[in-house]
Amino acid sequence: MDRNKSNFRKAKHKVEKLKSFYTHLAVYFIINSIITAVKVMSGTHSGQTFEEAFFSFSTMASWLVWGLVIAIHAFSVFGLPLIVGDDWEERKIQQFMNEEFEYNKKYK
């Protein structure tokens, strides 16, 4: 029964990480679309062509910078488990618990 709880906790944690990433991705597209629309409208009102306003660095900067953050978030959700393994957290917790146990056994 304890193993089922552990498996459930791991699965729930993975689902929460996925949900967090997809929420982040949706917010990224919504907010950056609004920012782009505002900057393009502002640029066209100040005399720029649509293309000049749309492809200006100030319009694309938020897409690029936030896009890097999204890429890092995606790597932590999808890429990192492939490299370190799904049970990395569990192994580290067990390692630290064993070290603490040995320390307490030795010095207390």
What does this structure look like?
With 108 residues, the protein is mainly α. The protein has one domain. 90% of the residues lie in helices and 0% in strands. The chain is built from four helices and no strands. The chain has helices spanning 2-45, 50-54, 57-84, 88-107. The longest helix is centred in the first third of the chain and has 44 residues, at 2-45. The model has no long low-confidence stretch (mean pLDDT 88).
Helix content: over 70%
Structural class: mainly alpha
Order of helical and strand elements: HHHH
Instruction: Determine Rg (CA atoms, Å).
Output: 23 Å
The low-pLDDT segments are: none
- What is the number of domains? 1
Count of DSSP strands: 0
Q: Mean pLDDT, rounded to whole units?
A: 88
Approximately how much beta-strand content do the residues carry?
Answer: under 5%
List keywords for this structure.
mainly alpha, elongated, single chain, 108 residues
SSE blueprint:
Elements: H1 2-45, H2 50-54, H3 57-84, H4 88-107
Concise account of the structure shown:
The chain has helices at residues 2-45, 50-54, 57-84, 88-107. It is an all-alpha fold and 108 residues long.
